[in-house]
Structure to design on (973 residues):
C-alpha cells in the first residue's frame, strides 16, 4: 500500500538533509555575511596612534579594498599575521586594519614588534564599526569592490589559499597602482 | 596494561553482540533451537565484558591514570573521588561507553524476563538488540575509544580537569537515568522489529511490549526532569527549560514514547492501531538515535553539545540509516497485512486515545521542526535563521493545552461505544470545579497574568479532577483498584500538576537583575532581598566568594540565601552556584553576576512560584508509569494464574 | 578542516550574564528586556545577548539601549540588527520569507492530523455495528 512507503521515503529525505548538514562545516550558517552585494558601511574612526588623523572609508571609493578585523587579544590573528605581511608585500590592493576593542598602546606595540601589513589602521574602541560590518569574532576579512559593495567575508585566520581563491580572483586583471 | 584490557573487553563484547545478532535472528528464521540457545549466554557474556570495560575506566579515573587520553582530558589530581567516577560520562567517549553498558543491561533484563515468550520471538528481540549493540560498540571502538593512550612523552603531569559545570551531584544521576530511558526505547524497537520479522502482531505482543516501554518512559521522564532541575540551580540563570537542541532531543522521544504507551493500550485491549503502534515504536527509538546524532555531530549549536566532530556525525548517520531505514522498510512490507475489523465510536475511549496520539505526535513534530529548521535552511541554501524559545512558546503551548482538554474529557469515555452522555454530570462538575479552583489559584492568589497561563491553570485542575472521578467512585463502591488504574491516575495527576506549575511559573515569576552593594535591597513584591556581605571561600579544586543575602517578607527577615561564585583553577573557568530556598509554594532564588568593583555585585533575584511542582509532577508521572507497569497482567506467574481462573469461567472483579 | 575558534573574549566559563541596565522609563525597560532576549549572541552557543557575558553581547546591548533612547521602534531595532547580521540574529524567525515555512508547517500538520483523525474515526464508526466483540463498558483500566 502506498501510504506505508511514506515513512521510509520521508526518513531518507531527512537523512539526506542531515548528510548535507554534516558535510558543511560547523557554524556555516553564521559565516555568510548579511552584507553581501550591499554597500559597505562607512567607517569614520581615528587612526591608530595618530589622534589628529581620521580614517574615512569614503577615501577608498572607486577601487577595491580589503579590511581585516583584528585585536592583540586574538590568538588566530597572531597566526594569520605572517600571511597578511606577505599579502601586503604583493601590494595588489589596500589592506585596511580595523583594530577591534583593543588597547591603543598594545596594538601599536604589536605592529611595531611583528610588522605592520596595513596601509592604515582604524581604531574601533567601541566596536560600533565592527557591528556595522556584522562582525562577531576576530579575525574576519572583507573584500569590498570598486563600487563599494561587500563581495566576500572570510571568517578565521587568512591563508594564502583563501586569499588567492576568494580575494585575488575578485580583483580586476590590471595591477593596482 | 590495564586500560588495554578495557579495550580488549570491548572488542570481545563487539564479537559477542555480533553472535547475539546472528544466532538470534538466523536461529529464529531457521527455527534452529541450538542457534537460539546461544543467545542468552551471549547476552550474559556481553554484559560482563562491557561491565569490565566500565570498571577498567573507573579504575583509571580513580587512580589518576593520565596516560589514558580520556582520563587526562576529564580529570585532575585535585578532583574529588566522587567526580572522578562520574567523570566517566562527562564527555563524549565515556558517555558512549555508558550508552553501551546501559544497552547491555536492558538486553540482559530482556533475556532474563523473556522466558515466557515464544523462543523464536525472544531470539529475534535479542537479536535486534544485538545489532544495536554491535553498531554502538563499533562506533565506540572506531571513532571514540575511551581507552586511547597517550604516547609516553605526552603524558601530562596533571589532567585538564572535569568541566566545572559538571562538577555537581546531579552529574552522577542525570546522564545514567536519561540514557536508561533513551536506550530503553531500543527494547520497544526490538519488539517491533521481531513482530515484523515474525509477520505477526497480536494482543499478546502488545501485552509483552507494554511494561518494557513504560519502564523506559519512566526513566526518561525522570532523566529529563533532573536535567531541567540541574540547569535551574547550577547554571545560574534560574531558568528551567531553554528549548535548546539537546533538551529537545530528549523531549521528542518522550512525547512519542507517551503516544506509544497509549497506543499499546488500544492494541492490547482491542487489537487496533497495530501498524500505528509499530510505527511509533520505531519512531521513538529513531528519535533517541537522532538525539544522539544531534548532540555529537556538530550540526546544531547548543550550550550542552559534546565537542563536534563531523566524522563521528557521519558514522552515526550511517548507523541511523541502517537501523531506521531497515526498520521502516520492514514496516512498509509488513504493515499492510495488519488489518483489524474492530469498530469504535467517535467519542469512544479508542477515539480519544487516537486524538491523544495525534496531538502528541504533532507536539513532537513541532519540536522537531523548531530544532531542525536552521539545518534545513542551510542545507537547502536558503537564508540562515535561528529558532529560539520565542518560536516554541508561540506554538507548543496550544497543542499541549489541546491535549490536556482531550485527557480531561476522554478519561470518562468507555471502550467501543463512548457513552459520554453518561458522564455528562462528571464533565459538568469537573469543568465548574476547574474554573473555580483554577481562577482562585491564578487570579486569586497571584493577580492578573497572561491569559494563556490562566487557561493552563484551569485546564490543569480539570485534568486532576477528571482523573479522580473514576477511582473515587470505585473505592466508594468497595471495588478494588488495579495497579493499572492507580498508575494511570497518578500519571494523569502528574500531568495536571505539571501544567498548573508551568503555567504559573511562566506568568507569575518576578525577576530583577540589579547591582547591589552591602546593605542594599531589591524588592520583589512582598519580598525583598538584602545583600549583606561577601566572604572568600575555598574548595578542593576551586576558590571564590560566598554572599549572604537575607530575604525579607513584609520587612521581616525570613531566610538567608548563599549564592557563590567559584573559580576552578585547572580549567580557569568561573561557575555560579545559586542560592535557593524552597518554600511549599515558591522558590526564592539569588545568583551572583559579576564583581562590579567598589564592593558592588550584579545580582539576579527571582521569585519562582510553584516551580518545584514542575519536577514533582515529572516524578508523579514516572511513579504512575512504574505502578502501571507492575500490573499483574505483566507478571508471568500471576498472569498464568489469572489465565487459569478465567479458563474455569470464574469472573474477576476488576 | 581546521575548526575555527572565536570564543576568545570569553574569559569566564560562566555561561550567563546578569544585565543590570536600567532604562529611564518602565515601558522602555520592558522593551529593552524583551528585545535583548530576542536577539541572539552571535559569538555564543545559543544564548541571547541578555544572557551572554561576551563583549560583543554587551556592545549589542548598548546599541539596543541607544536606539531605544533615540526613539526607534522595536521593528526598526530588529531591522537594524538584521541588516548587519542577517535573520540569524533573531531568535524568533520572521513569519515571512525564508522562515515562513517554519510557522506554516505546524499549522498545516495540525489540519492534516485533524483530517486523518476524522477519516479514521468515520471508518471505524461504520464498523461498530458489525463488530461483535464484547467489551466491558465499565472498564477504564488502560
Amino acid at each position: 500500500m502506498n501510504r506505508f512507503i511514506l515513512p521510509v521515503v520521508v526518513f531518507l529525505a531527512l537523512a539526506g538533509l542531515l548528510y548535507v548538514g554534516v558535510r558543511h562545516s560547523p557554524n556555516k550558517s553564521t559565516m555568510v555575511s548579511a552584507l553581501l552585494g550591499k554597500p559597505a558601511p562607512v567607517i569614520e574612526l581615528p587612526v591608530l596612534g595618530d589622534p589628529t588623523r581620521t580614517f574615512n572609508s569614503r577615501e577608498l571609493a572607486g577601487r577595491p579594498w580589503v579590511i581585516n578585523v583584528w585585536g592583540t587579544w586574538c590568538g588566530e590573528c597572531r597566526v594569520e599575521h605572517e600571511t597578511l605581511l606577505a599579502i601586503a608585500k604583493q601590494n595588489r590592493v589596500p589592506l585596511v586594519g580595523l583594530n577591534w576593542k583593543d588597547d591603543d598602546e598594545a596594538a601599536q606595540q604589536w605592529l611595531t614588534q611583528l610588522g605592520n601589513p596595513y596601509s592604515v589602521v582604524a581604531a574601533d574602541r567601541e566596536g560600533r564599526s565592527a557591528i556595522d560590518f556584522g562582525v562577531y569574532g576576530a579575525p574576519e576579512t572583507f573584500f569590498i569592490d570598486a563600487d563599494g559593495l561587500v563581495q566576500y567575508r572570510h571568517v578565521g585566520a587568512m591563508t594564502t589559499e583563501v586569499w588567492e581563491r576568494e580575494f585575488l580572483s575578485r580583483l580586476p586583471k590590471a595591477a593596482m597602482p | 596494561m590495564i586500560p588495554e584490557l578495557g579495550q580488549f573487553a570491548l572488542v570481545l563484547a563487539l564479537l559477542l553482540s555480533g553472535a547475539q545478532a546472528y544466532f538470534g535472528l538466523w536461529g529464529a528464521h531457521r527455527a534452529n533451537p541450538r542457534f537460539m540457545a546461544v543467545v542468552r549466554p551471549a547476552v550474559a557474556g556481553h554484559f560482563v565484558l562491557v561491565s569490565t570495560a566500565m570498571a577498567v575506566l573507573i579504575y583509571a579515573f580513580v587512580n589518576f591514570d593520565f596516560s589514558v587520553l580520556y582520563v587526562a582530558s576529564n580529570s585532575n589530581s585535585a578532583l574529588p573521588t566522587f567526580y572522578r567516577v562520574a567523570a566517566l560520562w562527562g564527555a563524549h567517549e565515556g558517555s558512549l561507553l555508558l550508552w553501551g553498558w546501559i544497552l547491555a543491561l536492558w538486553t540482559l533484563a530482556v533475556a532474563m524476563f523473556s522466558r515466557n515468550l515464544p523462543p523464536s520471538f525472544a531470539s529475534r528481540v535479542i537479536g535486534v538488540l544485538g545489532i544495536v549493540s554491535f553498531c554502538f560498540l563499533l562506533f565506540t571502538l572506531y571513532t571514540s575509544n575511551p581507552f586511547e593512550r597517550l604516547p609516553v612523552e605526552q603524558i601530562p603531569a596533571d589532567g585538564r580537569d572535569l568541566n566545572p559545570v559538571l562538577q555537581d551531584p546531579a552529574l552522577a544521576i542525570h546522564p545514567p537515568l536519561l540514557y536508561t530511558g533513551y536506550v530503553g526505547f531500543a527494547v520497544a524497537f526490538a519488539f517491533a522489529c521481531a513482530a515484523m520479522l515474525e509477520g505477526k502482531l497480536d494482543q499478546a505482543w502488545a501485552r509483552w511490549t507494554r511494561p518494557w516501554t513504560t519502564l523506559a518512559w519512566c526513566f526518561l521522564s525522570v532523566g529529563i526532569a533532573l536535567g531541567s532541575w540541574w540547569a535551574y540551580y547550577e547554571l545560574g540563570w534560574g531558568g528551567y527549560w531553554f528549548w535548546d537542541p539537546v533538551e529537545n532531543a530528549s523531549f521528542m522521544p518522550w512525547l512519542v514514547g507517551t503516544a506509544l504507551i497509549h497506543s499499546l493500550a488500544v492494541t492490547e485491549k482491542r487489537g487496533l492501531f497495530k501498524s500505528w503502534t509499530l510505527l511509533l515504536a520505531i519512531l521513538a527509538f529513531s528519535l533517541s538515535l537522532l538525539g544522539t546524532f544531534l548532540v555529537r555531530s556538530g550540526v546544531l549549536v547548543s550550550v550542552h553539545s559534546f565537542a563536534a566532530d563531523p566524522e563521528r556525525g557521519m558514522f552515526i548517520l550511517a548507523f541511523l540509516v541502517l537501523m531506521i531505514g531497515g526498520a521502516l522498510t520492514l514496516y512498509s512490507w509488513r504493515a499492510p497485512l495488519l488489518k483489524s475489523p474492530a469498530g469504535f465510536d467517535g467519542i469512544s475511549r479508542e477515539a480519544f486515545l487516537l486524538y491523544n496520539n495525534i496531538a502528541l505526535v504533532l507536539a513532537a513534530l513541532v519540536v522537531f521542526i523548531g530544532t531542525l529548521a536552521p539545518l534545513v535552511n542551510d542545507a537547502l541554501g536558503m537564508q540562515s535563521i535561528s529558532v529560539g524559545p520565542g518560536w516554541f512558546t508561540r506554538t507548543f503551548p496550544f497543542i499541549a493545552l489541546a491535549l490536556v482538554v482531550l485527557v480531561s474529557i476522554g478519561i470518562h469515555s468507555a471502550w467501543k461505544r463512548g457513552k459520554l452522555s453518561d458522564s455528562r454530570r462528571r464533565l459538568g462538575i469537573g469543568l465548574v470545579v476547574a474554573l473555580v479552583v483554577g481562577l482562585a489559584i491564578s487570579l486569586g492568589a497571584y493577580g492578573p497574568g497572561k491569559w494563556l497561563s490562566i487557561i493552563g491553570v484551569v485546564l490543569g485542575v480539570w485534568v486532576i479532577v477528571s482523573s479522580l472521578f473514576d477511582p473515587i467512585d470505585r473505592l466508594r463502591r468497595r471495588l478494588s483498584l488495579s495497579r493499572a488504574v492507580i498508575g494511570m491516575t497518578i500519571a494523569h495527576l502528574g500531568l495536571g500538576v505539571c501544567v498548573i506549575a508551568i503555567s504559573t511559573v511562566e506568568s507569575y515569576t518576578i525577576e530583577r537583575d540589579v547591582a547591589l552593594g552591602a546593605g542594599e535591597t531589591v524588592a520583589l513584591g512582598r519580598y525583598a532581598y538584602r545583600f549583606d556581605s561577601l566572604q572568600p571561600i575555598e574548595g578542593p579544586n576551586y576558590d571564590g566568594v560566598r554572599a549572604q543575602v537575607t530575604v525579607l517578607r513584609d520587612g521581616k527577615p525570613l531566610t538567608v540565601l548563599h549564592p557563590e561564585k567559584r573559580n576552578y583553577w585547572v580549567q580557569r573557568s568561573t561557575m555560579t552556584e545559586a542560592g535557593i530556598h524552597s518554600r511549599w509554594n515558591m522558590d526564592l532564588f539569588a545568583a551572583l553576576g559579576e564583581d562590579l568593583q567598589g564592593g558592588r555585585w550584579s545580582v539576579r533575584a527571582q521569585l519562582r512560584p510553584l516551580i518545584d511542582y514542575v519536577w514533582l509532577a515529572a516524578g508523579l508521572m514516572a511513579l504512575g508509569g512504574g505502578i502501571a507497569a507492575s500490573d499483574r497482567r505483566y507478571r508471568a506467574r500471576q498472569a498464568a494464574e489469572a489465565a487459569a481462573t478465567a479458563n474455569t469461567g470464574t469472573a474477576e472483579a476488576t | 578542516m581546521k575548526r575555527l575558534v572565536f570564543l576568545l573574549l570569553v574569559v569566564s566559563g560562566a555561561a550567563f550574564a546578569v544585565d543590570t541596565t536600567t532604562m529611564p522609563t518602565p515601558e522602555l525597560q520592558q522593551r529593552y528586556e524583551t528585545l535583548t532576549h530576542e536577539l541572539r549572541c552571535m559569538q555564543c552557543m545559543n544564548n541571547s545577548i541578555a544572557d551572554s557575558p561576551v563583549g560583543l553581547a554587551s556592545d549589542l546591548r548598548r546599541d539596543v539601549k541607544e536606539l531605544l533612547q533615540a526613539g526607534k521602534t522595536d521593528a526598526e531595532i530588529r531591522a537594524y540588527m538584521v541588516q548587519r547580521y542577517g535573520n540569524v540574529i533573531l531568535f524568533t524567525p520572521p513569519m515571512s520569507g525564508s522562515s515562513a515555512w517554519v510557522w506554516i508547517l505546524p499549522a498545516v500538520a495540525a489540519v492534516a492530523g485533524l483530517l486523518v483523525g476524522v477519516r479514521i474515526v468515520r471508518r471505524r464508526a461504520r464498523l461498530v455495528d458489525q463488530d461483535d466483540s464484547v467489551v466491558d463498558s465499565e472498564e477504564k483500566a488502560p
Remarks:
- The radius of gyration of chain C is 25 Å.
- The CA atoms of residues 135 and 141 of chain C lie 12 Å apart.
